[in-house]
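dumping this here before i forget
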Amino acid sequence: MRSLNSDFCLKLYESHETQNSIYLVVEVLCGGELLNQVRKEGTFTLNELKEIIKNLVKALSHLHERGIMHRDLKPENILFRSKEKIYDLVLADFGLASIKTEVNMLFKRCGTPGFVAPEILNYDVYLTI
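structure:
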């Protein structure tokens, strides 16, 4: 998180480590999760969806440029800075993120089971090809 410098990724200001815990000082976000917004609103306008997708792609592009894989993309990890600007999103929860070290590196287990990419589910198939 320290290497991220994007308006669309959660900002880490400081971290403090004790023998039993790690404390992260991050920016304050007041808009809630994408999942809660979907449940609350039911639908978004086409323009809202365009902005949400555009900003999410910007966040992922920033990660990709640095060789970082988030590995847990889901609506709960897409947060909004405020309730007024639905498109002002921030990608959060980098607990499973890792640096890409090999071109075709796959992980058998990563992320939330309901949001796992198909290539992870077909991992054994790729090993036999």
